[in-house]
Amino acid sequence: MTLFNVTQARRIASGFFPDPTICEKPEGGYLMVNSSFEFFPGLPVWESEDGEHWGLIGYAMDRPEQFSYDSMGNSQGIYAPTLRWHDGTYYLIVTNVNRGNMILTTRDPHAGWSDPIWVDGWPGIDPSLFFDDDGTAYICGNEGSSGEEKPGIYLAAIDPDRGRVLTERVHICGGITGSNPEGPHLYKRRGMYYLMWAEGGTESGHMENIARSSAPFGPYEMYPGNPMLTNRSTHLTLQAIGHCDCAHIEDDRTLMVFHGTRNNDEYPAQGWIGREPYAVWFEWGEDGWPHLSDQSYDTPLEGDGSAAERNVSWITPGIDADHRYWVMAPPHRHHEEADVALPPQDDGAGAPNGPVEGGQESHLAQSDGATAPNGPVAGPQVDQTAQSDDAAASDGPDGPEGPLPATITVDAIEQDFSLQAGPPLIGTRQTCFTCCFTATVADTGQLAMGEAGIAAYANADHYITVAFRAAEHGVCQVEASVHNADLVSVVGRVQALAAHPLTLVLEGDACGYACSLIEHPFPDGGFEANEPVVHDLGRIPGKVLSFSNAGGFTGTLLGVYAHGAGAVTFTDVTYA
């Protein structure tokens, strides 16, 4: 492997948006969709005119009836979509690992997506669609989980409008190592069929390979330069690159998206933001192979101006069927600079749950933006970022004045962070190491029992909290804790007067999180009568949330929660 064949890659979205799939729009420009796993709303849809600047326009899975959530656990749910356009329709094929493979369709990605069309008789994960010149549609994916099939990539013809597999399932490729071949995509370029797939697992051994054939079912000739893309055996910041998809496959210059993780400088290096999408262009040689061989890509640890780093999109692990989370989003600044126009609000019947502005909640009419919350959210899909990526990178979130806070009310129930009683928190993806997440509770007496606070959440077994417990005798106990599987450690503890408003703080950097409490005394009747008191609650290493420790396929969510009894309102919820 050529260790110095390294090029800088452009990150096109920040935070865990893994398994990117890209599709050219017939009128020009591109769409991209990512995996969402157990989080809802799911299948985020992005749009770009140039392949470099992207804006979130909504979610393909934004209605509870689209999302089977029964018995779902960490990193289950929605895996590895593929988006293709054919004859006026966008087809989005994806795996729900708790039920099977399915297809969603739309003629207008701004106007909502269909209910799932379930694909019968197609096991395995990471399905992909390919439409040949004669109109024949093919489905490819990897082996089923029963252990009866040999590892590799399988292909068959399919009727995508009815989800019916039409031909025998044929093994067409076993990979180059035999280690987890997955994420296949089939293309046709100048009369030849090209099969691309990921291999080597999703972490340090991740890679992308390519082969070609004169017929869809093979036999396939392996590219002599495989792996065409990998960062294995390097100490680059960007790791675990792979899971590619391409646009402009017929041209001499092709646009490719892939994902990767940013790791810090510790030894061994750690990353907990998650797998993020990148975009690069590559050229083809006269021999019909891509000019990529052992190609590595890198990125700075922190933002380089290529992607907005303060996207705020409220999501929950699972569906908020009991309407426990109420979100009030403020009006946007600089919305006229958006890369992609914000979608109009619909009446809620199949409407896209994309970015909303001006104190709106996606399924309800616009509130007056004054005191009332926007209402219950089945999927808390409010996006506070509505400016161009480059503007966000240069001026900071929502422009030079900084991020806009939200107000979130949580109806507490007796639960912990398990997923069995519904979503344990509501949050937004962490998009960079250096960040600060805060929330203020003006009245701790809203919590009758239990605890409430903020969290850095990797999954239901690995998370960090800064939280207060229900007051006793006029005093609240505030703790910073780390939950590492069955081990719970209290890092810092302080007592605060229950009558004082409390601001809970998680401040992130490349090593982890500093936890603190800001207590706002107001003995003379005014919120600003006295200087706030800052309580240092200690530091917690981020490696607790990393892939190497927490496992799974997602990333870190920064959010608020309330467990116990009562309705807790968090004001000035800010990600900066």
From TrEMBL:
Residues 340-406 are annotated as: Disordered. Pfam families: GH43_C2, Glyco_hydro_43. Coiled coil: none annotated. The keyword Hydrolase applies. InterPro entries: ConA-like_dom_sf (IPR013320), GH43_C2 (IPR041542), Glyco_hydro_43 (IPR006710), Glyco_hydro_beta-prop_sf (IPR023296), Glycosyl_Hydrlase_43 (IPR051795). One of its GO terms (molecular function) is hydrolase activity, hydrolyzing O-glycosyl compounds. The keyword Secreted does not apply. Residues 416-566 form the Beta-xylosidase C-terminal Concanavalin A-like domain. The record marks D126 as: Important for catalytic activity, responsible for pKa modulation of the active site Glu and correct orientation of both the proton donor and substrate. Residues 383-397 have a biased composition (Low complexity). The active site is at D19 (proton acceptor), E182 (proton donor). Keywords: Glycosidase, Hydrolase. GO terms for biological process: carbohydrate metabolic process. PANTHER family: BETA-XYLOSIDASE, BETA-XYLOSIDASE-RELATED. This is Glycoside hydrolase family 43 protein.
